[in-house]
Design a protein that fits this description.
mainly alpha; elongated; single chain; 62 residues; 2 helices
Length: 62
């Protein structure tokens, strides 16, 4: 998958991190509704960053 597609997925997760807690979870009066969503979104962002950077190679100046 091209890197630009991964970047779009990252932006989609970021957008969902703003939309979901304030729309779908707005009726949940406890903090753990949004916290659970943000925790899962954070893990998703980390995983996407790992996939985006797997093809980076280390260059040495030897």
């Amino acid at each position: 998958m091209k890197r630009s597609k991964w970047i779009w997925l990252v932006w989609a997760v970021v957008l969902l991190s703003y939309l979901v807690p304030y729309t779908l979870l707005s009726e949940v009066s406890r903090w753990y509704g949004s916290f659970l969503f943000w925790a899962v979104a954070g893990v998703a962002i980390i995983a996407l960053n790992v996939f985006m950077t797997t093809d980076f190679k280390e260059h040495s100046d030897d």
